[in-house]
Amino acid sequence: MKTRILLTLAASLALAACATAPKPLQGQFSTVSPRDTVAQKQTGTPVRWGGRIIETLPGQGETCFQMIARPLNGNGRPSTTSADASDGRFLACRAGFYDPAVFEPGRDVTFIGRIEGYQSTKIGDYDYPLPKIAADVVYLWPVQREVEVVPAYPYGPWGPGWGPGWGWGWRGWW
Questions:
Q1: pTM for the full predicted model
Q2: Alpha-carbon dihedral of residues 160, 162, 163, 167, nearest 10 degrees?
Q3: Strands, DSSP E only, in 11-141?
């Protein structure tokens, strides 16, 4: 009985370890979203935000990323459960050069930093205020590919004429 409890506890701890954020993304951060911070002007607040890259803008001495914000899941990765889920947009800037061919539109990135200020940008004819963070951490997530699983024997090991109640199929009698 004690062995069963210990095994259950060990399995639970192992699964819980899988749900934690990678080491660079751990810490305590404000829960304010980019959309909320535009209304409240919370300059200097430490945040962990993530989302999908809209545009990577290398400049002299720093690279800025225009992002569509997504809610973060338990391990800090931007959620992909709904393509419509958005917490607004934000701009994240970090010293150095980040290649736009690697940090391309559509990739998931999580940032840790402080809200540095706000910058207005045009989206169509609309002036959109973007919260700008000075990023200390830029975490590019690996691409998740959807894989279609096809059974090795879609009709059973004898080919498409066999199956429960099928008899010989088109190869012979029904």
A1: 0.70
A2: 140
A3: 46-58, 62-70, 89-95, 108-123, 126-140
In a domain, 51, yes or no: yes
Count of the separate structural domains present in the chain: 1
Rounded to an integer, what distance in angstroms lies between the CA atom of residue 150 and that of residue 169?
Answer: 22
Confidence of residue 13 (pLDDT cuts 50, 70, 90): very low
Answer whether 78's CB lies under 8 Å from 162's CB: no
d(C-alpha 118, C-alpha 130), whole Å: 6
| Domain boundaries, position 35 | 22-140
**Chain segment 83-117, per-residue pLDDT in tens:** 777 888 999 999 999 999 999 999 999 999 999 99
Check: CB of residue 124 under 8 Å from CB of residue 56: no
The CATH number of residue 100's host domain is 2.40.50.140
Q: Are 30 and 23 in contact (CB under 8 A)?
A: no
- Report how far Cα 112 is from the mean position of its chain's Cα atoms: 14
